[in-house]
Amino acid sequence: MYKISDDLIQLGMERIKDFPVEGFVPGSGPDSPALMLVGEAPGENEVETRIPFTGRAGKELMASLSSVGLAREDVYITSAVRSRPYKWGSKKERDGSQSERKYNRAPTKKEIIAHAPILDAEIRDIDPPLIVTLGNVGLQRLVGPEAKVTQLHGVLMETPILKWDEENQRFEKTEQTYHILPTFHPASVFYNPPVRTLKEDDWRKIGALLKFKK
Ligand code: URA
């Protein structure tokens, strides 16, 4: 099992402490995974279990992995941000009363920058043979803000990726190139059901790539 250093966890907590986020969910998986999955940020379930993708989206993701003969233990799962970004909202109870609760939200650019050194270290140490980004947040973190999952899903790219340069306070391209195949975030099928067939096609491509490598 790969483990990021306690120092890096401390740094990540320190860099994100002024933003509305909670918890810290470490990435999870072996040192030499079949591939690395890069999602968005943990949600409510993950902050409780401290394991990525253990909620409803996780079930969907595990089905995709199993469709290509992989299980959670075979892959390294991480995301652009390792704490849960939340916003307060009100929920109407059955009895008509309102209660305040936390809702998940997408991470901001500042939060992504706060945790960039963590993802950079994971990619550097693990050097995955294939990176599968899940949704636009993971894709744009690594490839840039112009990249769109609707255009690039299912396309295998060999490309430098973005790495945070603390000294110059900007993302810089790596010298090394990586194999990246973007696909949709597993939760996207819940609010956009037609995406399911596109996502399944992408996973078939991922399965074919893995077979080719063996
Ligand atoms: N979405 C993510 O990107 N990561 C998780 O761990 C859960 C949901």
Automatic annotation (TrEMBL):
Keywords, comma-separated and alphabetical: 4Fe-4S, DNA damage, DNA repair, Glycosidase, Hydrolase, Iron, Iron-sulfur, Metal-binding
Region spans: Disordered: 87-106
Biased composition, class Basic and acidic residues, residue ranges: 90-106
This enzyme's EC code(s): 3.2.2.27
Record-linked InterPro entries: UDG_Type-4/5, Uracil-DNA_glycosylase-like, Uracil-DNA_glycosylase-like_sf
Keyword match Endoplasmic reticulum: no
Top-level taxon in the UniProt lineage: Bacteria
Coiled-coil stretches: none
Xref: SMART domains: UDG (SM00986), UreE_C (SM00987)
Domain Uracil-DNA glycosylase-like: 26-204
CDD domains, alphabetized: UDG-F4_TTUDGA_SPO1dp_like
Molecular functions (GO terms): uracil DNA N-glycosylase activity
Catalytic class of the enzyme: hydrolase
Name of the protein this chain belongs to: Uracil-DNA glycosylase
